[in-house]
Amino acid sequence: MAQTVAVTGGGGYVATELIHQLLAKGFNVRATVRSKADAAKVAHLTCLATALPGSVELVEADLLVEGAFDAAFAGCRYVFHTASPFFIEAGDPQAQLVDPAVKGTRNVMQAVARNKADVRRIVLTSSCAAIKGNANAAAPKVGSTYSEADWNETSTLPAEAYWCSKVQAERAAWELAEQHGLDLVTILPEFIMGPVISRRSDATSFGYMKAWLEGTAQNFAPVFADVRDVARAHILAAENPAASGRYIVATTHSTSPSTISSWLQERFPEYALADGEEMECTEIINNSRVQGELGLSITPVKETIVDMAATLVQLDLAQPKPKGPEPGKQ
């Protein structure tokens, strides 16, 4: 008999890929969304289910309403908590970002506690923002190598509200897991990129790649995570009885904008794409734990970038400008 699992934030970028992979494995997925009537955010989920072995049930649940997830989690073997507000800038960062992230996580964890007889494990989508501050705002730590043992103790409001929200939400999850005796595993991705399934285009990742494709270089050097790897890590963490603690999902080094632009120009020679700056790659991520313990293979970053760009073009979510004629040619 197929197992039932729950995914919060069902219309999101990570959740969509996660649901895709869960359906392919034959799971029945209960996806929570704020409104089933918002077709732009949920229609792709039911479309996925028609082509894959599993099934999707959409359940309305407000992240900030206590008890809203109780019915959604009933009878679920695993809960994947991917939902969280994601705004780099907010007018009132404490009220708009940090408090909702923490309250939402508490509501989800308490709903799991009330369904403890059914739910074997909760896998929470945290972030590398919970282990380190914004590299663009402050110098990295001495040695510049980060692992699951690190916690971000440098980010402050209002400058790094998103980073603060991820730290506080994950700490709240661990506190409640201990309090209620819940089996919790957290996944910590870096800047998530990779192919898109939904036409929904409000993710920060979409804006980053759309800008590149439409001729504006993004001159900072992120460490990337492939959305397919992130989703796969969630499933591996749920199904492996020995999984525990935190798992970083990311490539090992930041990637220079000049490298990004060269990959895109190679893949799309017909478009007028910007040249990225050459930047030193200062951050190093230790991703050995997720590979060694969960058996996750990290997708090469070139594949991640090129695959995402291709899907944005295919879905008409980006409109690259064709190159003009070469000088002297008409």
UniProtKB/TrEMBL annotation:
Its EC number is 1.1.1.219, 1.1.1.234. It catalyses: a (2R,3S,4S)-leucoanthocyanidin + NADP(+) = a (2R,3R)-dihydroflavonol + NADPH + H(+); (2S)-flavan-4-ol + NADP(+) = (2S)-flavanone + NADPH + H(+). It holds the Pfam family Epimerase. The keyword Oxidoreductase applies. SUPFAM superfamilies: NAD(P)-binding Rossmann-fold domains. InterPro entries: Epimerase_deHydtase, NAD(P)-bd_dom_sf, NAD(P)_dehydrat-like. One of its GO terms (molecular function) is flavanone 4-reductase activity. GO terms for biological process: flavonoid biosynthetic process. Keywords: Flavonoid biosynthesis, Oxidoreductase. Residues 5-244 form the NAD-dependent epimerase/dehydratase domain. The keyword Repressor does not apply. Belongs to the NAD(P)-dependent epimerase/dehydratase family. Dihydroflavonol-4-reductase subfamily. This is Flavanone 4-reductase. It comes from Chlorella variabilis (Green alga).
